[in-house]
Amino acid sequence: MGLQLKNPLIAGSSGLTAHIDTITELANAGVSAVVLKSVFEEDLVCPNDKFKNPVSLLSAYPKSTDSNVPRIKRIGIDKYLSLIDRCKKELDIPIIASINCVSSYEWMSFARKIEASGADGLELNFFVPPADPLRSSEDNEKVYFDVLTELMRNVKLPLAIKISPYFAGMTKMALKLSWTGIAGMVLFNRYFVPDIDIEKLSVVPGPRYSHPDEIYQSLRWTALLSDRVMCDIAGATGIHNSEGLVKMMLAGARAVQVTSAFYTHGTAYPAVMLQGLEDWMQRHDFEDVRSFNGKLSLKKAENPADYERFQYLRNFSGAEND
Question: Which of 11, 106, 195, 199 lies in disulfide reach of 31, CB 3.0 to 4.6 Å?
Fold first, then answer.
């Protein structure tokens, strides 16, 4: 994103990055930047607002009809801006704000306030699930570009877009997004995971935190896209240790975002991950991160087909035993 980072480890948006105390603990443990907890568009929008340029709203906001909503909204915005201001005064690392977007333009003015508050960047945490059978993939994708176009007109902050892997043409979509002028792309967003309680016959939350096995999808697409898109890529989801950090950097990520591992191991865990990175670099005689960053991306891999093929005979037909 054009930010000067002392290392590639970023604390991703979460409850840990919603409070100055835990943000400070993560910074003291070595993270190079912090993405503040996302502000949800639903918290900024009420139906009484007059949308001058609405983008097909994907949901209604019945809770916003209460007369107290404007005041609650203002308090929420003020609190968020105050957190940015305090972080900038007390910490010496980049502070990246985050908005969880659905579709509306109403929060564009909030983006300007974020910029004025001193934030170093803005992450757009998009949530446009392709679940509506009446909406085409083109309709869903248009939301991204409409929002980006409007934001580019409103703010000069470096923008990063955090996306899901749910695109019919992932490579083309990533390329088109990078052509808009965004500074970074985060692969990937991790949405709410539903589960089913078979005794109570109800839908319940699935695992709250990611699992190390979830790294592989992000790893594949980071390697496929890092040499193609016109912006930096940050790897996210499933990075739980220094090994995952190294893998993402080898695939071409310029940085990684970690959340679940910090919940699991505590806010001092960044120091453990960074020590592991340093130990690995010493074992392999790398003087700095740039000397191995992207070494195993699609363009530089000895066999690029390893990334592009989605099934292997040796894995599924027993060919390795022949």
Answer: 11
